[in-house]
Write a structure and sequence with these properties.
This protein has two domains: 116 residues, no CATH class; 144 residues, Phosphoenolpyruvate Carboxykinase, domain 3, CATH 3.90.228.20. 24% of the residues lie in helices and 37% in strands. It is built from six helices and 17 strands. Strand 6 and strand 7 form a beta hairpin. Helix 4 crosses helix 5. The longest helix has 18 residues. The relative contact order is 0.13.
């Protein structure tokens, strides 16, 4: 069965065309991205038109993504999903095995889109609001991104897995992210200035120190959702990381597993 939906992620309007035999795709995009049925043609106005089909590949095996560029088409291939994007990432086909594959394919697509446009970055991190200012928390797997979210309640959660960061000469701001693992998508409209980036280290005490310029850039680079396939695209990522680390302080945060670490931050 075919159906059309529309949603907005940050500043970008997405039309999602589904062609599936089961309901999981439609349920997923409505629940996770706040998509609603399309009542009038919007394809000409959309930033991205995505055609989603199920029945691809096999269950998830690992996170390795193979990227190939043929002519004006870029293909991202993983065991459980396949993405075919045109040169400007405006028209995209996504083939998925299940909802887990669809979740990761959408992260892949959106990250590739905003990188290609040099609009911003999708960073593997959590991000919270404190007095209308955004604070980003990143680190290696198990460092405490989810723990920080839990300990920071009732502060609003802008992201718990993938933070949307708009980067320009004028401002570095955060949008509410639908790319989540453990929290539901809240209604948090608008943008919020990114005040600090914390690289997490669990500790017996709370302390933080500011990282130097290149160290900060490297720490941010390691957390970008990006699959290298073109030297020019990689340069875009590095330039945006450099601008981000120059405009927003990057700290190493040693924290106890309680909410007292906020005394070091705000």
């Amino acid at each position: 069965m075919r159906a059309s939906f529309v949603t907005r992620i940050a500043e970008h309007l997405l039309v999602l065309e589904t062609e599936t035999d089961s309901a999981f795709v439609e349920e997923f995009i409505c629940q996770k991205y706040g998509a609603v049925p399309l009542t009038e043609p919007l394809s000409n106005e959309a930033d991205i038109v995505v055609h989603i089909r199920e029945g691809y590949g096999a269950p998830f095996e690992d996170y390795d993504v193979e990227v190939t560029v043929t002519g004006k088409t870029t293909v991202y291939k993983r065991t459980d999903y396949l993405i075919e994007a045109d040169a400007d990432y405006r028209n995209v086909n996504i083939f998925v095995h299940d909802d887990f594959a669809l979740k990761h394919a959408m992260v892949n697509l959106y990250s590739a889109y905003i990188t290609q446009k040099m609009w911003g970055l999708l960073i593997h991190s959590s991000c919270l609001l404190e007095q209308d200012r955004a604070y980003l928390f990143a680190g290696h797997s198990g460092a405490g991104k989810s723990t920080v979210v839990q300990l920071s309640q009732p502060r609003p959660v802008l992201s718990d897995e993938a933070t949307i960061v708009k980067i320009s000469e004028e401002e570095i701001v955060i949008y509410n992210s639908p790319f989540r693992s453990d929290t539901d998508l809240p209604d948090i409209p608008g943008t919020y200035p990114l005040t600090a980036i914390q690289i997490l280290r669990q500790s017996l005490d709370n302390r933080r120190h500011r990282m130097g310029g290149m160290e900060g850039i490297q720490q941010v680079l390691q957390r970008i959702f990006y699959w290298a396939h073109d030297p020019e695209e990689t340069k875009k990522v590095f330039r945006m990381c450099k601008l981000l680390a120059e405009r927003v302080p990057v700290y190493e945060l040693f924290f106890q597993k309680n909410d007292t670490f906020w005394e070091e931050i705000s």
